[in-house]
Fold these 4 entries.
Entry 1:
Amino acid sequence: MPLCARCTGMFLGALIGLLFQAITKPRRAGMPHWSVMVALFLLAASFAVDGLNSYIQLFPASPSLYEPHNWSRLLTGSGMGLAVSGLLFPAFNQTVWREWYSTAAINNLGSLGIMVMITIFLDLLILTENPFILYPVAIISTFSVVFLLTLVYTMVVLMVIRKENKFDHIRELIMPLIAGFGIALLQIILLDMVRYFFTGTWDGFHLG
């Protein structure tokens, strides 16, 4: 897999969340209901706890809450991805579109529950480690990294050039999206170069 279990879950979860909101409630730009925000916070908190617990395991004889596993990394990463999508979707709509709806795309716990069930189902498929599932997941998760960074940097570009809320159709966004895509690729290239400078390899960090 091109990404670790935690990052695979996070970027897939974010992609699922964004696609679900875009299909069911397009151009909704309101922040989620407070109950949904609490649930998203809990998902993000579980990601932080599991990440800290895994980090502690790097130090011999250090106390930890539980033995870390890839299934917990995948699930908590997916939860974090859903939390990211819940905030990124309305932020993107508020920044880009001339006309958008002030209501929230995730306006109740039922909508969030559907997203969670879809994500868990896909996570369970991934945990089967079936090559026919892992190969497309590897491609989709890698695409998700570039996709999310492109969305974020497109928003930044529009704010820098002061073109917020100027667009009515996706085709009008071609140039800002290309700019966001270019910046996303530049960030990835720079990070890879820094990693190669310190490790002498294009692979990930090898500990132990």
Note: Strands lie at 28-30, 101-104.
Entry 2:
Amino acid sequence: MVGNTIGLLGPLIFGADNLIDYNSSQTVHALKFLQGWSSLGVFVLPSLLFAYLSNINLGFHQISRQQFVLTVSIMFLAMPLINFLSFWNESLHLPSLLQPLENWMRHAEAQAMLITEAFLKVDSWLGLLINVLIIALIPAFGEELLFRGLIQKGLFKSWGNIHLAIWLSAFLFSALHLQFLGFIPRFLIGGLLGYLFFWSGSIWLPILAHFVNNATAVLLSFMINKGVINKELEEIGTQAEQGPMLFICLLSLGLLLYLIKQISVKV
């Protein structure tokens, strides 16, 4: 409530009269201000406060250089696979009986995409840094504290089954985004982040992976807006002729996951 209340000052600060006019720079600035404070209020501060009051160890342990390099490499290798799964997820349809629900989900997704596109439409370095902060850094830190540091660890402590804890946390992680057409890839990413946390015992590893995933999307959008790279790079992995590349990425991803597991267990 405190975070959202502060965030709602955005329209006053930036002089935004209409919060659905995404072509207005004042509106976009106000929405980014709201988004940042909302993320702090919903994810970061409650997680830290709960961990402090409950004396929970969130796992702020140092990671090795090998873990850092492997985690970054894993997320880059996973991107074509994530794009493929996103493309496949968007093509799925609910049974005809649930057509009204699917129509609502697709409408909500379209509205969310409009906001996302408005956020990413920047061509200045300051705009890029703000987007990295709002879209990558704060969500990566806050969401990993909540879903991996608190929920996954709490479920594991209660049930004693780490795989169930990881995948249920991943389900909640994907569902809470309310972006149904990307549910499956986000669910699998959540599982990956959960295993990185379990293997290493350090919350910094899933935070790093989450940040790399989000920050790469922000950086690619920025470079496309600047005309530095082709827009098709965002869609790598979605073309039928890219099957062999996806297979190689999958094998390489499996190898790197095996390596990081072995390295992390010994840390």
Note: Residues 60-266 form one domain.
Entry 3:
Amino acid sequence: MKLLRCGLAGQERPALLAADGTLRDLSPLVDDIAGRALDDRELARLRDADPMQLAEVPSSVRIGPCVGGVGKFIGIGLNYADHARETGAEPPTEPVVFMKATSAISGAFDPIVLPRGAVKTDWEVELGVIIGRVARYVEPDQALSFVAGYCVVNDVSERGWQLGGTGQWTKGKSADSFGPLGPWLVTRDEIADPQDLSLWLAVDGHRYQDGSTRSMIFDVPFLLSYLSRHMTLHPGDVICTGTPAGVGLAQRPNPVYLLPGQTVRLGVEGLGVQEQRVITWDEVMRDG
């Protein structure tokens, strides 16, 4: 299934993408794509429903973040060797873990808002993993059973705040709009192997990133097992698993960063495509 959340920010309703391409309202069956709704039994109940018996959602509706009630938004840094090397770092010997603020979460087609004072805002296409049930001390060979589904994530990063000064990754990755999720939560059964997905990103039509999850240093089962030893993972927690080479910071001869008016387009095989226009915070304030 491809599950989504539609409507104004903060007022999203659950929906699914039917086989005929229409959006169908799931609100008679579930309150939200969040929490207990992400358990395998609840997902099976939704899967058994006939989409054609559900009301159609207008195609013009805003598509919000594909999961609600996110408790933790966890990032994995430098998880592709080519990306680590392009930034001047050695590939890590264990996962680099950081947090993104849940207030950074936005819809797949919402704008990227450049914060005041930001001058080095960068892009990162990533495979997102959405937890479906409580996970503690999970073994790698059981880890995928704790996954509700997968989604596209753009791990937007302000490099000046991430790497400058005291070098705080969470600070550099947590501005409002810096975590587009979706458009869909694609349930686990539709993705045969999360380690065999292509992913890409372009800015104004120029392809900067073109990689595969095959190149991850630490695969999804290992990451879930590793994280579950350090913290309890709850339904709705989102893990963004790292990005391949091609970020703006590493462009040569000079870094390239996002500018107002540009368009970022990105996707992960089988999980859909995102598109964001880059705007300034002052534009948000002006337009209300």
Note: Residues 2-57 form one domain.
Entry 4:
Amino acid sequence: MDQPKSIQYKIKTVFRPALFLIGGFILISWLFFTPPGILGKADAVGYAVCHRIDSRSLHIGVRQLPLCVRCTGQYIGAVTGLLFLTIFAKRRSGMPPRRVIGVMIFFFLLYAIDGLNSYFYLPPFLVMFPNMPHLYEPSNTLRLFTGTGMGLVISMLIYPAFLGSIQTNPDTRPSISNLKTCFIILALGILVDLLILTESIYFLLPVGLISAGGVIILLTMVYTVLLLRIYRKENQFTRLSQISWYVAGGFIITITQIALFDMIRFIITGSWSGFI
């Protein structure tokens, strides 16, 4: 038996059952120990990647959303961008042209500047450095828009990278070929943000769940690509169904990471609440 067939045999007979057993145990344990209900599980996802500061989060009544407003924007923006590209840029795996990359850099800088400015508005910094100059007073509205912009940028990068790692004969045309398409995606992100800012429960509830799901989607995509590269299986598939085992592996690594971060944070803080 040659080497490639030997590796495939080992995956089927050893790694796949182990994947299900270990992954199933981790997933069931995580579901058991995290807060109850679907929003409780979404909180646990957010708890692993976000500070969840109450004053910097959106609320349904008194109920805080799973992620802070910046992270909510970031992951809802990423999901929005991925959906758009899945529909209108099927199979295209080329990176955007320079003009679009310039726009992406601009939104990354906005995200970084607003994030840094907000960071220095945290109470510990205000107490330690009361006279520190700031660029401007941060707001949740700015956090939402800059977070969404960054999420759209992430989708523009990860979508072609994911497809480019899977397809046997990838379509190398850019997934976003021009500024017009780029601005359509940005306009879509702005529309989503305006709906969120209405603070209607009919928008906030699905947004909270989708943004938490976005964390899992993005991490699973990243780890799936990593597994494909580890097993040297890039560009060997014609259908997404053919990479189901690698996607399952990426999902299990994602849940393991979330569970590990949840455990470490809970041991340190003893609470499922935000830092402040």
Note: The chain has a mean pLDDT of 89.
